[in-house]
Amino acid sequence: MRYLKWNFQGRENLPARTVYFVSESTGITAETLGQSLISQFDQWVNFKTIYMPYINTAKKAVALSTQFDKVVESEGLRPIVFATMAEPEVRGILASANCLYIELFDTFINQLSAELGLTPSGKKGLSHGFTNGDTYEDRMSIINFAMTNDDGARLDKFDEADVVLTGVSRSGKTPTCLYLAMHFGIKAANYPLTEEDFGVSRLPEVLVRNKAKLIGLTIDANRLNRIREERRPGSPYASLRRCQNEVRMAQQYFQKLGIKVMDTTSHSIEEISSRIMKQIKLN
């Protein structure tokens, strides 16, 4: 079980609800669609989101239902559950539990089944298409590429990347690269702009050489300050002045290189990744 976040940012007086993303597999689909749906209401509600993958047996489903009861007991409201559950027995247990159960498969499967005139298989483990060994290995290799080439760790591999993200520390490079790898099969690398780069007033040759693949991520300095304060409270790294200077110098770099720039201040990882995909297709 992974707790994702409370969306408290000066909105402590808003009502709170607990949301589960549940799947018999990795849960990427349930989390992605569920997050998109609740984002339409997050100005009125603080959502506590909990990620529950691999709920693939009746025993696990019953245990999770007990968790729902505890949420109702402690919060007085039933949790909201977004699920992608192909197995009828497991789905039935969760659907009858003390929660608002939203089966995301139903939204699409029933219509598709009617159109095709076929009954869905109901097999486990198909929600992300990892039924072909080669496909699975390819995807794992791509995810490993993103992790290996995080924060400029392997500049010698940047020529192999489909896209290279650059920007100041905590501007969203790493999670965006991993999302691109996991959801789109994109080989994504990233390079952090540091004081050393600003001091020499130039970027490594590998970035300049791969300018066509390069996308700069920028962020509002005040937002960056808050993010860094959570990571290293009271440090020079987190100071507002340093955040302002780094953002300004990064933008100057982007303008000098003439590369595409995307602002991550108020956009989700999903939105940023979608925009990057459009840019990759244009390139």
List the helices and strands and how they pair.
Blueprint: E1 2-6, E2 16-23, H1 28-38, E3 46-52, H2 58-75, E4 80-84, H3 88-95, E5 100-103, H4 104-116, H5 133-148, E6 163-168, H6 173-184, E7 188-193, H7 195-200, H8 205-209, E8 214-218, H9 221-231, H10 240-257, E9 260-263, H11 269-282
Helix pairs in contact: 2-3, 5-6, 6-11, 9-10
How would you describe this protein?
The protein is of the alpha/beta class and about 280 residues long. The protein folds into two domains: about 1-115, Rossmann fold (3-Layer(aba) Sandwich); about 135-280, Rossmann fold (3-Layer(aba) Sandwich), CATH 3.40.50. Helix content is about 45%, strand content about 20%. The chain has helices at about 30-40, 60-75, 90-95, 105-115, 135-150, 175-185, 195-200, 205-210, 220-230, 240-255, 270-280; strands at about 1-5, 15-25, 45-50, 80-85, 100-105, 165-170, 190-195, 215-220, 260-265. It has a five-stranded mixed β-sheet with strand order 1-3-2-4-5, with helices on both faces. Strands 7-6-8-9 form a four-stranded parallel β-sheet, with helices on both faces. Helix 5 packs antiparallel against helix 6 (about 175-185). The longest helix is centred in the N-terminal third of the chain and has 18 residues, at about 60-75. The chain is globular.
Short description, anyone?
Its EC number is 2.7.11.33, 2.7.4.28. With 283 residues, the chain is α/β, with parallel strands linked by helices.
